[in-house]
Amino acid sequence: MRIRTQGASPGSANPATDLTVKRVDLRDRSLLTVFAHPDDESLACGGLLAWCAHLGARVSVCCATGGELGLTTSDGSTLPSTGAVVRRLRRRELHNAARVLGVTHVEVLDHEDGMLPWTDADRLDADIRNTIVRLRPDVVVTFGDDGLYGHPDHIAIHERTTAAVAALGADGPALYYVTMPRGGMRAVVTHVAAALAGRGAHGTAPQRILGIADADAFGAVAAPPTLVIDVGRFAAAKLAAIKCHRTQLDGDALSRVTSRDAARLLGTEQFHRAAAGSTRDAFIESFAARRPF
Question: What's the CATH architecture for 2-10+27-274?
Answer without folding.
Answer: 3-Layer(aba) Sandwich (3.40)
